[in-house]
Write a structure and sequence with these properties.
Elements: E1 2-6, E2 15-20, E3 25-32, E4 39-43, E5 49-55, E6 63-68, E7 71-78, E8 86-92, E9 98-104, E10 109-114, E11 117-123, E12 132-137, H1 144-162
Antiparallel strand pairs: 1-2, 1-12, 2-3, 3-4, 4-5, 5-6, 6-7, 7-8, 8-9, 9-10, 10-11, 11-12
Family: Belongs to the LOR family.
Pfam family, one: LOR
Organism: Streptomyces muensis
């Protein structure tokens, strides 16, 4: 499954749609401005919240938390020793599963893997539209909403680290 994400052009607090490869709106990323911590909601086309994404308060390193139905689903933070490429670790709530996100996050060219197996690829290579990137969910049994939330989180964390957050 391939999804198209139009980058936020105006900064935090903006809403943007995620479309399938046929141009149908599938998810809405709803940025919640005027909060103490960075907060997003991933909604379906009927406006139902599928996933809550928020910045973890009082963490030593920037950390984002993904929740579904009020229950923790995953925690995302940058790996400490990743000098050449952006590297993020996604710890799922089960405590034993970790996803690895690596690549050029700010260029929107990175992969999400589990135990060396590719789950999703985020890339601008396939697209000719400026400020748009694709999220290609490779495995049929993968959770597209979770992988899109992971992409939103790591891009947000990388932009904050670089100092682009408005």
């Amino acid at each position: 499954m391939r999804f198209l994400v139009r980058d936020r052009l105006l900064g935090f607090g903006d809403d943007y749609w995620i479309e399938d490869d046929r141009g149908n709106k599938v998810f809405l990323v709803d940025g919640k401005a005027m909060r103490l911590r960075d907060t997003f909601e991933l909604k379906d086309t009927q406006g139902r919240v599928l996933i809550d994404i928020h910045q973890k308060m009082l963490a030593l390193r920037d950390t984002m938390v993904i929740e579904r139905d009020g229950h923790p689903l995953a925690t995302i933070r940058r790996k400490r020793l990743s000098l050449l490429r952006n590297h993020y670790r996604v710890s799922l709530a089960d405590g034993s599963t970790e996803l690895d996100v690596s690549g050029r996050i700010l260029d929107r060219e990175f992969a999400v893997e589990y135990d060396g197996e590719l789950l999703a690829v985020v890339s601008r290579r396939w697209l000719h539209v400026r400020e748009t990137y694709g999220v290609d969910v490779v495995r049929d049994d993968a959770d597209p909403a979770l992988l899109i939330a992971v992409a939103v989180c790591v891009i947000h964390l990388a932009e904050r680290e670089r100092g682009d957050d408005d």
